[in-house]
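CO-FOLDING WORKSHEET

Operator: S.A.
Ligand of interest: pyridoxal-5'-phosphate
Run index: 416
Mode: holo prediction, single chain
Checklist:
[x] sequence pasted
[x] SMILES validated
[ ] output reviewed
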Amino acid sequence: MNTPRFLTSDMISHIRENYQTPVYVYSEKELQERAQDLLSFPSSFGHTVRYAMKANPQKNILKIFDQAWLSFDASSDFEALRILAAGISPDKVQISSQELGNLAKELVESGVFFVATSLHQLEFFGKNFPWKSCGIRVNPGVSSGWFAKISTWGANSSFGIWHEKLDEIQDIAQKYDITLIKLHFHIGSENTPESWVASAEHWFEILRQIETITIFDMGGGHKMAIMPDEKSADLEAIWNAVSEKFLNFYEETWRRIHLEMEPGKYLVINSCSMVVEIQDIVDTGKDWYTFLKTNSGMNDMPRVAMYGVQEPLSIINDSDEYIDYAVVGHCCESSDIITSKLYDAESIEVRSFKKASIWDILVIDWVGAYNASMAIKNYNSFPESWELLLRESGEIIEIRKRENLVDIWRNEIDVM
Ligand SMILES: Cc1ncc(COP(=O)(O)O)c(C=O)c1O
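OUTPUT RECEIVED:
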């Protein structure tokens, strides 16, 4: 039997009385605790915790992390602009983007740190900022990731400069007299202390060849166990294994490398629960399924449809009776399933729930990462949902209003 992770029944009643479901509710305490966890990791030569804001760019989350002394990684010009608009200092921001956007030059001029993720981007940096410093993202050619969709290393991945192109990297750096000071990796999910140790020679080889590098950014992608039978990456063990390698590297070379980690999910995933309502119950006969239809779905929470992740669900009522249900979203789309098989987004799985009625509340936990930010926004013209913040004091406040219906078509031009 599930109970919500941090929402009490009083909070749920308050939310129901004051807002229209569906609503995302973030916990300030969870966000702060996660940030403190990572900042307290031991490090021989100092370390930086850089929040991968793509996981959730809500202004207030950015500000909470800013106040907690985190730095930030932006994956596009627009993300970088968003963070600067939140009032965060450019010297805490790096941009490592798949696309070289039109505003990259202005961003670097304003003090944002640039990581080139392709030779073309490195050329751009050299041409515009000769004699300055930047980072490079390298694909070391070893694959990680527990399934192909989230692998960001290896020959199948377009992320980063292929490891065999170090000569070209150095030629560009020399041509423009730029200094490469940061090596940036992101290996995708399911990385373990063993996989990091096994790949150590790949990064040290690059560090030996490019002697100007003083910072190693190990990216994010640490698996977070959501359901009881899943296993989280042991981030502290990964960190210790990597730190030890860098201590050995120091003994060998006298180079002190500053470590950075760049998690997204780890910092935000468990900080958010979604409060939705059961808006219908239908079945496909006694041998098949009874479906609970909710008033939210892939337009608010796309991670199930994209990756087949499972999230803990709690029906809020006083029933003692338990029934097997499949839970689905409200979008007119067969992939809008909320209880899919693990990592098999297209297959329905039933789970045992308290006997539900229409209008019961359902709380979906662990939805803080890659849901609000990756939402299949406005599909079926559903407006973006409310976002609330549960303050440390216990007060619940609005941090984003429910989208106004006219906002959905505001930019359409009526030519008929
Ligand atoms: C460069 C980079 N850093 C960090 C992250 C964050 O990954 P996660 O949220 O899985 O920790 C990503 C995710 O795609 C990434 O591409």
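REVIEW:
The chain has twelve helices and 20 strands.
Residues 235-253 form the longest helix (19 residues).
[x] output reviewed
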